[in-house]
Design brief:
single chain, 151 residues, alpha+beta, 1 helix, 11 strands
């Protein structure tokens, strides 16, 4: 066997061994476990006695602003009036799910949205005004949340 053939066989054995270690480390499946550590994958042998390794990295998306959820049952907020506290400049994401039709009104900001029975109203806006504000089902005059924006 020539020296070039021996090197090619040796390179193939190394690639197979590394592949076996990768499979053993991952439990033999192709599923990802959410790990964001770099993974190395052996490149194919070129017969020159050298092999290359590539590295890939998975990056998690940054978390967005929190979503505040209010569920209305029988025209009343489930669990009582939801307390929402944010800093001025934050983004407010509010989702109101209701079993009754009404208008959701955010006082102070003067935002209004209709919500159908069994429907959802969504609000997303910057907290530009500091203070305390009532969020209510307008027709029922039922407070469902209390918004506090701190300076």
């Amino acid at each position: 066997m020539s020296t070039g053939s021996r090197i090619a066989v040796l390179a193939a054995v190394v690639v197979i061994a590394i592949g076996g270690l990768v499979i053993a480390k991952n439990g033999g499946d192709n599923k990802t476990n959410g790990d964001t550590t770099p993974a190395s994958t052996p490149a194919s042998s070129t017969g020159t006695g050298t092999s290359a390794t590539t590295t890939s990295t998975t990056t998690a998306k940054p978390a967005g602003p929190p979503v505040f959820r209010v569920t209305v049952s029988g025209g009343k907020p489930v669990g009582g009036i939801e307390k929402i506290k944010v800093n001025k400049g934050d983004t407010i994401n509010l989702v109101v799910k209701s079993d009754v039709a009404d208008e959701v009104h955010i006082h102070g900001y003067d935002f209004h949205k209709d919500v159908a029975a069994g429907g959802t109203a969504r609000f997303k806006f910057p907290a530009k005004i500091d203070g305390s504000f009532e969020i209510e089902l307008e027709s029922r005059k039922e407070q469902i949340a209390a918004l506090t924006v701190e300076p």
